[in-house]
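Notes on consecutive records. When two proteins share a document, each keeps its own sequence and its own token line. Never mix them. Below: protein one.
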Amino acid sequence: MMVSRLDINVKDGTTMKAAVLEAFGAPLSVRAVPDPQLGTGEVLVDVAAGGVLPYAAEVFNGQRRYLLRPPVIPGPGAVGRVRALGPDATRLAPGDWVLCDPTIRSRDDALAPDVTLQGWTARGQGGLRLQTYLGHGSFAEQVLVPTENAIPLGPIDPTEAGRWTVLNVCLVPYGGLLAANLGAGETALISGSTGTFGSAGVAVALAMGAACVIAPGRNQEVLADLRHRFGSRVRTVQLCGDEDTDRESMKRVAPGPIDVVLDLLPPSAGPTPVRAAAMTVREYGRVVLMGGVGLLGGDDLALPYPWLMRNSVTIRGQWMYPRHANTRLIELARSGLLDLQQFDITEFALDDANKAVTHAANDARRFSFTVIRP
């Protein structure tokens, strides 16, 4: 029987400070909890910075219906320094800077592992079982992760730890673009490019060598900012809401055929803009779905069978990213191809975790990120 680690009531032993979600709809409670206990195949990390996603408040109040069992320490992903290691770590050492990958996979099925996003949500009942053992996230002074989830960052400026947490946002669209096999010189369309993950996806696609990125959206201010940041390699489209008109507008601004479409639209968008974007792709093109259509109810996405078949279009769903994506994205950042300096970072102390959640929800700027610094 799996041993639970979600009992965070202090009985004896050493303690750390953490922000705890006691129940959906309740504010985070910053209090003492037991220190994580290191086991074989695990790494204990002193958290330097943990990112706060813009929709964190929707997760904590239950609106997103995420599979997360309170009481729990939330927070998906972190940057920190290794405190202690299990015996299976052969290259990491105490004091090393690491990126803590929140995507935790079960180890007993290499083909279809159960997955939990540490401190955030799970995929199905298997993921919930995994969450029972490794469910606590990064809104704490320490976090315990599987050895393979502590990704070496190399030396960094400690004052810049918050900036490096942006990689956990960029990893999501990077996973989608890897699934699409985006190649240098191709044209990619990022559906949802005015959102947090979508705008990061524009930056990542360009870092991967896309010749052109089509960026549709309704927010004129964000579209103008994308043009200003990235220049002529980004072509923006103001959407009007009519599916046929929007589809033709997206195709018209492209310099040629659109090779890849990546959808990152949230559940609130519905299927219409997703379909409009997907059906801009060229013959033999690739479409990757990573957004939220249908997750909160409503209509599902319908695509024409004849269009798919006669145009030999590949449609693929992708949740998160493969393990090797972490290392490759870190190298893109270290090389300067992915410029993390373009992100504005706002930091909060752990005691101000609730203020951080509110700030993240209200900060409408793209390329800005809210961070908790324990």
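Protein two starts on the next line and is unrelated to protein one.
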Amino acid sequence: MSEAMTEPLWHLYLIETAGGSLYTGITTDVARRLVEHESGRGAKALRGRGPLRLVHQEPVGTRSQALRLEASVKRLSSRGKRHWVSCRETLTR
């Protein structure tokens, strides 16, 4: 008898840099990933651009679903991302 393997829950997150830029990423552990970014072990795009602020996170589902959502959010302008975040926050209240 084999055990069913369950895929971990993936999350989408957005981080704002000190300069106001928004970084979009996916992970299975948002808190761990934020610590990695803050310590300089995360994405090169964020190195030296702190302090960093987590502005949004949400569970998505599978890695595939998270990658698709991440790609669609990354295509948005900074203004579009901020609007997208405000709409998502309204939905979860």
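For the record: The two ends are 43 Å apart (CA to CA).
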